[in-house]
Amino acid sequence: MSKGHNSNDFFDGKSAEHLKQFIERLERLDSERGNINVDIREVFAEAKGSGFDAKTMRAILKLRKIDANELSEQEYLLEVYKRALGMASNSGVDNE
């Protein structure tokens, strides 16, 4: 800290306690996130053991988070771009 400042000058008792509560909540949530990440890895491992592809499942999870209209627009544009590059069939997109 700069000259002339210490923790008592910067925080009163109430502010210091409030900061401590935030830090403790963040630590608890960070710990829970770690536990959840372990659980998620276990579910993907179980799915993989059942013959499912984890990479494709992650893509599906990502798609399910997107609004239906936005997803339709993204899929349309993807198809248009793929066609422009000679990478896709003509299905789903009208020739303009």
Kindly describe this structure.
The mean pLDDT is 86. Helices cover 72% and strands 0% of the residues. The chain is mainly alpha-helical. The chain has two domains: 7-65; 67-96.
Q: Helical residue percent? A: over 70%
Number of domains: 2
- Termini separation comes to 65 Å
**SS elements, strand count:** 0
User: Structural class given helices, strands, pairing?
Assistant: mainly alpha
SSE order: HHHH
Summarize the structure.
The protein has four helices and no strands. The protein has helices at 7-10, 13-49, 54-64, 68-84.
What topology does this entry show?
Blueprint: H1 7-10, H2 13-49, H3 54-64, H4 68-84
Please describe the structure with a list of short key phrases separated by commas or semicolons.
mainly alpha, 96 residues, elongated, single chain
